[in-house]
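1st attempt posting a full record on here, be nice pls
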Amino acid sequence: MPNIYITESDASFQMKHNYFQVFHQQKQCISLPIRHVNQIIIFGNVNLPNDVIKILRLHHIPVLYLTQDGEYLGRLENPSQVQAKYMFHQRKRLRDIEFNRATAESMIWAKLHNQHIFLQSWTRYHANHATQRASNYLTLLMDNLAIAKSLDELCEYNDEADNVYYTAINSLLSFYSIYPQTRVRQISGLFNLGYQLLHQYIYTLLNTVELHPDYAILHRHGHHELPLAWDFTVEFRAPIVDDLVLNFVRNLPSSNGNGNGKSQPKIILQNFLQHWEAKLRTFVLHPYAGEVSYRQCMDLQVREYLACLLGDVEYYRPLALKFHPNHPHFTNIAESEKTPLTLVKR
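the predicted structure (as tokens):
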């Protein structure tokens, strides 16, 4: 089912014969049966009519509000009030120290592994002190996870890895992209937007399998909204978001406008969303399921966690991707599953 992204502040909406319709400049841009809408993501100050809100709530369709830089603004629904099907099992597992320790180690190990593979793929023709140091440190931490004495210590390893990894990311940005310093904030916004979109997509998967998003393992002590969804992002940040952003910024235009009255930030946002949807359609080699899209990968990991939660499998098996030298940056094993991207047209 399609995701709907609203990027125009003067868009208008209506429900007609169970169709969700979007208009821009008096032209209809979107008309979809409400049952086919997966989620709606709105950028900026856009108001939904009360009758549309009622229908969206009735059909349990998530609506997320973001700034154009990907900063979180709010949600239409209140996920914390949901009585999820497996809430009893999730609460019970909160007291299971062994389960939480083992699952956290698996997730963090996969995150470090995928970050290492990401750096390996991007530094085949360029390596410097920052990237080499990060690769070596990630390898060391992966070996040391098993000796961590507690969940808190595992999380400390995770934070240490991020510090050295993102130093390497900044080094790669400097090498692979030519952009003025004024773009630094814009590129940082793309990373933030990518992480928010990833989090939101995983949240919709949690809704599908009826897992409550507030019962997390890695993010349980922080001030994170829907922390279980953030738990699952750790395995996918490097191969999906970081790889996407580095590829995207290499082709950012150097001018501040395109001559038709459109602001460059809005064009960049709309292009980025198109690349985001294409990234989700990209096929990779899953260690257990064969060639599947990133969308399917995320769904498989959520269901793997549910099976572990219920005791159907003994341990949570994380997603550890492999480096394929003939396929740059994890990707492009195949391109199919052409799910349409739905945007307010420019």
